[in-house]
């Protein structure tokens, strides 16, 4: 009987060792959870992260949260239950997404935030973020010069629960509010969405038909605003965006968009994937926040840029 028990124990131990070896031989898996794939900029961010993860030898899958924190929570639950080893994360909500990241941390799964941040300094392993505030200070200066320090303008805000919305707005206003002859006649959220921005702009124009400029928290909203302005016969209004999307770069070159701010999603995504790779290799000392510089793009320097970055 004792020999039988010893044999069973040995078989269990052997099976356990075999299972562990098999697991260690399998490629690690990286979940890429993004706020939305309804915006080409985020599509590029996600696909670049997936490409870099593959180059580093890992399997990956992209999850679309559709700007819905509840769906984002489902993606995290799925990633944790399915054995993903790291999460490259573009949050839907600075505050609402914290609990998802904390769940991953509790499960010892590293999370690397991309572009959007969460309101926690300890939950994520690292947050790789564009320097939106500084970029919008520079955009604000260009806005003031373009409008010759006077006139009426509109601001289209992004998602109000996203810190990027307010970092960009605050950077812009830190400059523009110093010029009393520049008057903001409307400030409204369009959720970083092109179609919603067009509808919001149409509504604003009914109440304020005489405007000189529009500052938008991203390029999608800028393109929607331009559609509404052109339809209303107001293509002379100066529109400013933020992101460096393909549509925006083309619009700047054609003189339809006064300026945008070029983020570098390739740098952000590749850095996040590389951080995950380094984590798998044993590294644990990552910067809590890693700022990525942003460049202002207008007609004077458009030849240096292409969609989502500088020309090589």
TrEMBL record:
It is found in: Cell envelope. Pfam families: Peripla_BP_4. Residues 30-283 form the Periplasmic binding protein domain. SUPFAM superfamilies: Periplasmic binding protein-like I. Residues 1-23 form the signal peptide. The keyword Membrane does not apply. InterPro entries: Peripla_BP_I, SBP_2_dom. Keywords: Signal. Belongs to the bacterial solute-binding protein 2 family. PANTHER family: D-ALLOSE-BINDING PERIPLASMIC PROTEIN-RELATED. This is D-ribose ABC transporter substrate-binding protein.
């Amino acid at each position: 009987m004792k020999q039988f028990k010893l044999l069973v124990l040995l078989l269990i131990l052997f099976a356990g060792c075999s299972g562990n070896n098999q697991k260690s031989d399998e490629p690690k898996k990286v979940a890429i959870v993004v706020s939305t794939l309804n915006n080409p900029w985020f599509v590029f961010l996600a696909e670049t992260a997936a490409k870099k993860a593959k180059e580093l030898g890992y399997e990956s899958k992209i999850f679309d949260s559709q700007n819905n924190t509840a769906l984002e929570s489902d993606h995290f639950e799925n990633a944790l239950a399915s054995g993903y080893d790291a999460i490259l994360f573009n949050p839907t909500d600075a505050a609402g997404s914290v609990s998802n990241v904390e769940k991953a941390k509790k499960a010892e799964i590293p999370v690397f935030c991309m572009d959007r941040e969460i309101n926690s300094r300890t939950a994520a392993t690292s947050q790789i973020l564009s320097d939106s505030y500084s970029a919008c200070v520079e955009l604000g200066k260009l806005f003031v010069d373009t409008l010759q320090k006077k006139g009426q303008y509109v601001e289209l805000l992004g998602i109000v629960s996203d810190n990027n919305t307010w970092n960009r707005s605050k950077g812009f206003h830190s400059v523009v509010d110093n010029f009393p002859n520049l008057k903001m006649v409307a400030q409204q959220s369009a959720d970083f969405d092109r179609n919603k921005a067009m509808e919001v702009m149409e509504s604003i124009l009914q109440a304020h038909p005489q405007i000189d400029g529009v500052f938008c928290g991203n390029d999608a909203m800028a393109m929607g605003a331009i559609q509404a302005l052109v339809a209303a016969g107001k293509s002379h209004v100066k529109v400013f965006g933020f992101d460096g999307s393909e549509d925006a770069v083309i619009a700047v070159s054609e003189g339809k968009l006064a300026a945008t701010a070029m983020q570098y999603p390739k740098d952000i995504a590749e850095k996040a994937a590389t951080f995950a790779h380094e984590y798998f290799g044993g590294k644990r000392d990552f910067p809590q926040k890693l700022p990525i510089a942003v460049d202002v793009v207008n007609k004077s320097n458009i030849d240096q840029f292409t969609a989502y970055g500088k020309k090589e």
